[in-house]
Write a structure and sequence with these properties.
single chain; Arc Repressor Mutant, subunit A; 5 helices; 0% strand; elongated
């Protein structure tokens, strides 16, 4: 197997014991695009008949906006809104 294909699989599935990376993270490390990494991954999987059971990459938030879309982020937004309303309009009931 080509060294580049092997590297893509190692990074993508965490075969070196590291955390599996997303397509974008692998592309950034290799200086290429996500689509090229996806194609390399597909080719490597076709060419490698015996691979250990891979761990799928875990999507991690990349931006503050992504973090705010989590359940914890929803609670943060709710509390921030209440704090803003309290500052602007005085004390408010917790239910508002």
């Amino acid at each position: 197997m080509d060294e580049l294909l092997e590297r893509v699989l190692i990074l993508r599935y965490g075969l070196d014991g590291d955390v599996p990376l997303t397509l974008q993270e692998v592309a950034t490390r290799l200086g290429t695009t996500r689509e090229q990494v996806r194609e390399l991954e597909e080719r490597a999987l076709r060419e490698s008949p015996t691979l250990p059971e891979p761990r799928r990459p875990v999507r991690r938030p990349y931006s503050q906006r992504d973090l705010l879309e989590t359940p914890a982020g929803a609670e943060f937004r709710r509390r921030a809104r209440l704090a803003y309303l309290r500052r602007e309009h005085g004390e408010l009931d917790e239910e508002e």
